[in-house]
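WARN no homologs supplied; continuing
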Amino acid sequence: MIKTLEWTDAGVRFIDQTKLPTEETYVTCKTYKEVADAIRTMIVRGAPAIGVAAGMGVALGTLQSKATALPELEREFDVICNALAETRPTAVNLFWAIHRMRDKFGELRSFSVETIKAGLVAEAQRMHVEDIAANEAMGRHGAVLLPASGGILTHCNAGALATAGYGTALGVIRAAVESGKKLNVFADETRPFLQGSRLTAWELMKDGIPTTLIADNMAGAIMRQGKIDAVIVGADRIAANGDVANKIGTYTVAVLAKEHGIPFYVAAPISTVDLNTPDGSKIPIEQRASIEVTHLAGKQIAPDAVRVENPAFDVTPSKYVSAIITERGVARAPYEESLAGLVGGSLAV
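OK structure emitted
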């Protein structure tokens, strides 16, 4: 399994996703500020992976604190949490992880400084293990939804690289293939950061899963040709009503799937479901640098000073979503009820 990130004695180690697929290199972040930079610059990306990275960043920063008394440690802990929370605004897993670390700190307040530090490290490592287990469970729940054979379209990267391991959308595909289904994956290139061509195609090919790379604007034509039997994507935040924020271009794919009568599935852990956000209009959308659009592999491909829009995500209304696959089961419309049930611990099918 690809080691997207891991806790080591030297710091938090990441595979550098900005260098894939041509270079498989690793970066070790030795401070929480370096972890924050890795999240911000997309060395690590994907909502679940960002959440685990944030948890490890909080643990690393607290572990390195020279505080000897609780009040001083608490002040430093707040600074660390706030710095990590400011890295990327859309993926709710980031804030979920920081909130979980804050809760763990609160549980340990009556213990020694050293015990608090050790407890936070253990909690971050627990998040890592739990994320892989959640992805594997998600795969089992979702695999049954995919056809015995046929074409599956995915957009962006929701694989092992976007998580602690195994993957969400790609985890479902992996589980389906492992169960004997004969699937061919069509991967959208996912402009402008090219997560599909650089990451998804690389992952699937390493697993020996038949993969066809297409440009984003080919998806509708490929659907019309009857080559796509299902679409499955990940998510960075799911609102209480089932609206889904995911990589820019997902909304377009969902509309095309609806037009062609193709099921559109979303796979994401419960930590991605944000019941405090009523609908997609309330999800903050990250705006990224224009250079991601005006340049490709360092080469300028647009006129100087052209005006650029570069939202990193869009929102797909729940009416286009056939089902939402989580580690606790599969939610279907009405999502206000099924998602609340899953978050509360009851199984939806």
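The chain has two domains: 5-136, 142-343.
OK
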